[in-house]
Specification:
The complex is a heterodimer of chains A (178) and B (180). Chain A is an alpha+beta fold and 178 residues long. Chain A has four helices and eight strands; from the N terminus they run ααααββββββββ. The chains are: A alpha+beta (178), B mainly alpha (180). Chains A and B meet through helix 1, helix 2 and strand 6 of A and helix 2, helix 3, helix 4, helix 6 and helix 7 of B.
């Protein structure tokens, strides 16, 4: 019995016990999952840029490039797409204004809603946070997380339809690089 | 005793994709239960489960704490269930429209196990998704409110309110079944 069960009314306790029972799954489910896993790209692929974002190590040339990106933040719309070096990826810049925040990150379909994966950096102007993320063409749902706790939709992007969970999400559509 | 999650994750990251099968076998029961409770049917639950495991594999480079693989993967599943649940809701709009019919669980006889399970499944399906999610995370997955907040992005006080409302609604739907 878990700790909170002691405080549960009988009916809710019975409901919880019922719902904790194991469920049946297709006997071949594990094999189907592994077939898809083995056909998928290896997990290390594509991880390098995430590691760079989390532990940036800038060369002088890189610092100049980053400065150029940050300067562009102040002139750019909230979410914009710029041509990327790789033909299948587009750089999507996420910008959020939160003057009192200690940290801001962006979570979404593209990083499996991982709070730690994509932190925004202060962009120079007071309260402006920014990060640029290379994304393949597609539709992505995302949100900003302020100070690791408060979720916020992008005020300049469409809201996600079917957002039934009380947490605000936005949508960005990334078209193929032309 | 089998290899730890951390050992298995490190083997997968080193290129031994088949080590992932042990992680699938280890976490499939719990994840299948959550997906089934959230989505209400086995087909959608198994699809969400497959999606979560495949996304987990492809994203494994971002799993910075290999020993924390389980909670990390569970977070992916919670969001897959949200996405799939929203898709299903748009597709079906809605499971059942007739509240009176839903409430008409026979009450002349004490409910057997099957009847009780069906009634609980129907009641859970009738909860709004955010109430259902909060209830399942709290009372089925046994998470703390702080863990729930990290997973869902909702505040602790909002989650407490959702759990309370979920309990009230479940009680309203199931008291008649329980009483007999």
């Amino acid at each position: 019995m878990s700790e909170h069960d002691r405080d549960l009314p009988d009916l809710i306790d019975r409901v919880a016990r019922t719902l904790r029972e194991p469920v049946a799954t297709d006997g071949a489910l594990d094999a189907r999952i592994m077939a898809r896993v083995l056909a998928a790209p290896a997990p290390a692929a594509g991880g390098a840029w995430w590691r760079w974002l989390r532990r940036p190590a800038l060369s002088p040339l890189g610092a100049i490039g980053l400065a150029a990106i940050l300067a562009g933040v102040l002139l750019a719309p909230r979410v914009r797409r710029t041509p990327a070096a790789r033909p299948t990826l587009s750089e999507v810049q996420f910008v959020f204004v939160a003057p009192r925040a200690s940290s801001v990150s962006v979570v979404g379909d593209f990083n499996d809603w991982n709070l730690a994966a994509t932190p925004l950096a202060r962009a120079g102007a007071a309260g402006v946070w920014s990060v640029s993320v290379p994304l393949e063409p597609g539709r992505y749902t995302y949100a900003f997380v302020v100070d690791g706790r408060r979720w916020a939709a992008d005020p300049d992007a469409p809201r996600a339809a079917g957002d039934d969970f009380g947490t605000p999400n936005s949508v960005v559509l990334v078209r193929g690089a032309s | 005793m089998g290899a730890s999650d951390g050992d298995l994750v490190r083997r997968v990251k080193a290129g031994d994709a088949r080590a992932y099968a042990d992680l699938v076998a280890r976490y499939r029961p719990r994840l299948a239960r959550y997906a089934t409770r959230m989505l209400g049917n086995r087909e959608d639950a198994e699809e969400a489960l497959q999606d979560a495991f495949v996304r987990g594999y492809r994203s494994l480079a971002r799993c910075d704490d290999p020993e924390g693989f389980g909670p990390w993967l569970f977070g992916i599943l919670v969001n897959r269930c949200r996405t799939r649940g929203a898709q299903s809701a748009r597709r079906e709009r809605l499971l059942v429209h007739d509240d009176a019919a839903l409430a008409s669980v026979p009450s002349a006889e004490p409910p057997g196990d099957d009847e009780w399970h069906e009634a609980v499944g129907r009641a859970l399906a009738r909860l709004e998704p955010h109430y259902r999610e909060a209830f399942v995370l709290k009372y089925v997955e046994d998470l703390s409110y702080e863990e729930m907040a990290r997973l869902t992005g909702a505040g602790v006080s909002a989650l407490k309110m959702r759990v309370k409302r979920a309990c009230e609604r479940l009680r309203g739907m199931l008291e008649e079944v329980q009483r007999v």
